[in-house]
Structure formats: structure tokens, C-alpha cells
Amino acid sequence: MEDNKTILIAEDSSVILNLTKKILELQNYKILTAKNGSEVINQVQNQKIDAILMDLNIPKKNGMECTKEIRSSDNKDIANIPIIAVTGNANNYTMEQFKEAGINAYLPKPLDFDMLVQTVKQYVV
């Protein structure tokens, strides 16, 4: 059996984090979590991650800053991790800004869990 794919959920809301984690675990993904931008960067550097669900409003470094830092990594495996932005404030950003930062896809809050699973499956093969 192949190894489960690893998804990093970057989210500072425990409720959203736990719901998202449960939904993705039911799809047989291994889940790592980060409550702030520093933890995101630390996780990415220390283990293989197949995709990141990135809340844009996390403390320390926001999701856009984390995405730009990941994209600028010298390690191609890190720089190419699919990043799915999750935010309740998408109006603060344009699709152009998402693309420039290196975000692959975007999910609005409140999360549609069917769309969440479909989007993750699109990037994690």
C-alpha cells in the first residue's frame, strides 16, 4: 500500500482546524497542523508535505508571506508544494495577487467540505 499523502493545515481557529482535519483524515490523508506562520515554515523544512491548506490570516507570518517564502525556497520539493489558500477575507486579495504569491487554488470560508476534498484531490495525486 502506498504511503498516505501528507497535508499541512495552517489554521489558527481550533474549530476549523479540527473539522478540516477530520474531513481529510476520512479521505486517508496524514494531517500535520500549524497555528502560525513560523510553524508552517518549520513543518515544511522538516518533513515531506504534499499540499498545504493555508489560512491567510494566521499569526506571526500571514499566509501570503508564508507562501512567498515557500515559493522562494532553493529546495524544489518545498518550492513546488501545492498551496490552497483558505480565507474569509478573499475580498482583500485579487486572483492576480494569489497567482503572484504562488497560490494554486483558493477556498472561501465558511468551508464547503465537498469542495475542500475535491480541491485537495486535484493537487494531491
TrEMBL record:
Q: Does the keyword Cell division apply?
A: no
Q: Locate the Response regulatory domain: which residues? A: 6-124
> Is the keyword Kinase assigned to this protein?
yes
Origin superkingdom: Bacteria
Q: Which GO terms describe its biological process?
A: phosphorelay signal transduction system
Q: Which residues carry this modification: 4-aspartylphosphate?
A: D55
Which Pfam families does its entry note?
Response_reg
Might you give the EC number(s) for this enzyme? 2.7.3.-
Q: Can you name this protein?
A: CAI-1 autoinducer sensor kinase/phosphatase CqsS
Q: Which organism is it from?
A: Adhaeribacter pallidiroseus
